[in-house]
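Example (one chain per record):
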Amino acid sequence: MLNLAVASACGMLAMPGYAQQAPAETPAAPATPEPEEAVKTVTVSGSRIAARGFTQPTPTTSLTSADLDKVAKPNIFDALTELPALQGSTGRTTNTFSTSSGIQGLSSLSLRGLGTLRTLTLLDGQRVVGANVTGVTDVSQFPQLLVKRVDVVTGGASASYGSDAIGGVVNFITDKKFTGFKTNLSGGMTKYHDDKGATVQAAWGKGFADDRLHVTLSGEFSKQNGIDSPGFGQVGAGGRTWYNNPALQESTKDMQAAGAPRYRSIVNAQHIQYAKYGLITNGPLRGTAFGPGGTPYPFQYGTDCVGNFCIGGDRSGSVGAGTNLAMNFKRQVAYTRVSWDLDADNEIYVTGNWAQVTSAFSPNPGAAKQGNLSIRCDNAYLPASVAAGCASGYPSGVMSVGTANAEFPSNINVHPTRTQRRVVLGANGKFQMFSKEWSYDAYAEHGENKTVIQVKDITLNPRYNFAIDAVRDANGQIVCRSAAARAAGCQPINIFGDNPINIAGWNYIAPTNGPLQHTDSTQNVVSANINGELAQGWAGPISVAFGAEWRREEYSVFGDPYGAGAAVESPYRPEYPADPTLSVTGDNWFAGNYHNGKGAFNVKEAYVELNIPFLKSATWGEANLNIADREEKYSTAGKARAWKLGATWQTPIDGLRLRAVSSSDVRAPNLSELYAAMTVTNQAVNNNQGQSIQIQQRNVGNPALKPEVARNNSFGVVLSQPSWARNFNFSVDYYDIKVQNVINSLNPQQEVDLCYGGNQQVCSAVSINGPAGTNYVLAQSFNFASLHTRGVDFETAYRKNMSDFGLPGSVTLRGLATRMIHSISDPGVPGTTPSEGAGAMTGATPKWKVMLTQSWDGLASGKLGLNLSQRWISSGVFNNEYIECQTNCPVSTAAHPTIYDNHMPGAFYIDFGGNYSFSKQVSGYFKIDNLADRAPVMVPQTNLSLGLNPALYDSVGRTYRVGVRMNF
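Predicted structure:
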């Protein structure tokens, strides 16, 4: 347990070089104040107001380029996600198990664990076209070498910036007048000699025509080779020894009735529903496995076999370790900015950005079938002894078989590619009005993002089922049993034993034109903002910022005909041959069944923000009021309103400032939620008369969705460079965020129950009283759920010149910490209960997330700098809703299952780095992350998947990086 006293005493709760705000909301001030004429107006992203001396109430952490250089990551995204307030972000080590999510390889930020959808990410205060159908941006597509500051606003900012800023805002601010040439070259790899990578970045800027014309160019290339799948069995990637087949073993109903817990975490788990090359799972031949050449042998079951798992035994067919730990990842970015100074105070500019981010990974080896294959006794590939035993022991002539399909020649591999084209035309500057100086910025943006997800070496389920059902024809040749399948090109395959699969059979069940999703996203924005002094108040100038914005977003997505439906046209994959054995409604692939869809919306909005000083006294200090209001009108979701009311008080106590803010923030439904393409499955539901009715479950978007609305409250205390500690900064902020009308999906039975309960909104999606074959339920998202998160943020920094002790250089101790008190999710559906996510280590919100940093700069005649940092997350539980017990357990329910041990350990990582200046223009640096090579904590699952949570734990291991920076 980390308490405030420890945090304050140590003065080290931070990331490497991450700066706490000084009173003027800029990065921490240097030891020697700059001359008065050098002090400039700075706009920090928690507010649209740019005024000297303005202290905004919304907590904001600023990271300079120097701070980011010390972290020495190949991608700024990786540095930001280590911030304690950033929880739930996605990156190249997350979702490596996923084939169909669409977010693989997407570097998207999430604040407060509220999800990437509720964090607004900006570039120079401007929106960026989404890289996914949900509209979230990809930080890897940003021009990162030119970033001179990143502002992380850890509070609601919708009134200032619009929709999606419920959790906060992350604003990347570039050096718009960069002059000279600079480059960054780096390379690295892990202790295990994998995930090798290299980064090359260069930027050039120069002024022409008496410096009125300014041109900036930058280019970036970064490649990380990833950590490949080691294949089947209980093995670790690249020689890692920590993988131990974790699983969540479920006890039987009889065991639970006798007082045993429902779940138990085990290691060295063996799934008993399949083996590496086939296993009979029922009847008198149960336990017969197939080995070399298809030879049957008795499968070696482990001990303590309960449900689907044993402990120990034959684990050679385990697929959990086959998931990549990190994706093969490549980013390429080209950026330019050209500006023309109309005069000393006004400029027009155009920026262009092209970026392409590609990933590749394997979600799992083979394609495990868990005892659900029906194999007939006359199957031509069965060994004679097994066929005879089947004929005599299975009256139905059918036995169940499970297999990991380890005979497949290749693992499933997924290849997402995201390509962005973005152009901005803008103007900014100053003008005089009513004897006052006003500032303005206006821009028009057009952005396009094309996302292509290609899945390779994956099987079509119907073809696989036809191919394994093999018989001998009249000529003694092995063929597919189904005549229709044979006519459509079916080639039989042998799944019994380690026999190499025949190429014709593999090409039939896994055609080269695998699942494909092609998405085109477009964003157009026109925005204008003005700020300045409205009037002189008795306590200081009253400042105002106001503006308006129009935005249109549109997307279209096409899946391949086998996934989206054979009757659906796809301009990107016309070569799919017709196959009458496949379902015309799609969903034929083992995974990766992408569907078609399209939609668009536009929004008009206007805002005003005021800063009103109302106290200026030598006795009582200084205080100001910050208020804002934004009105929005969506073509789909209708009207929405966001507002903010905040205040800061510079107390008469030396260096002590108080701040508080309350805001109403919004998130409008995205295009995917509104217009998701329809998919259809057959289901059964119960009506309120106790009858079971067959229905079509039609999964579809909901154009009637309304915006989510959040109430965001925070209160903070800031101690900034008091006279008794000139280089010390400390802040503590309490936050409380309640989100209503949360968009969440319901299952068909929940919708039917709500409809019979009188909810007319849901009834419009239910039709179950018609003739057989006509009943359906639209499985949609609705505004029923709610979220509630609250906690405390700590931030501190202290700098000391070591010359006071007769030593060279200066030492900086800095820190950030977040204490998550609650993270409650309520589905809002009768019969369900809220769940607590704080401290649930299978999620993204530990109770404590802390960064500590100590750096010593100016060593070796000012040339050497060293920094040491620590990252810590506290221990927690597997799930807060689980009841821990060993014997005499209460009745296990769906909402509150029982578990033998609900504890999950935390993690502590140490990083070490340094830099050396060979000259004023050239410096070298190194960085070692996870210095102790701390192994990740295993997170058991019920399906024997990888069993990791890379959102919290480092799954890569010790990583080395070296590089050189040049600036001319």
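Caption: Residues 4-165+177-227+327-361+416-453+518-874+905-967 form a domain with the Maltoporin; Chain A fold (CATH 2.40.170.20).
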